[in-house]
Amino acid sequence: MADSPELVTRRRRGRPRVSTWAPPIALLALIVGIAYVANALLGKRAFLLPRPDQVFAVYVSPKNGPAIFESLLHTTEVALVGLAIAIALGVLWAIAMNTAKWVERTTLPYAIILQSIPILAVVPLIGFWFGYDFVARVIVCVLIALFPMTSNTLFGLQSVDRSHKELFRLQGASRWTVLTKLELPTALPAIFAGARISAGLSVVGAIVGDFFFQRGTPGIGALISKFGARLQSPELFASILVASLFGVVVYLFFQWLGRRAVGKWYDFG
Question: Which of 149, 256, 248, 253 is nearest to 198 (CA)?
Answer without folding.
Answer: 149
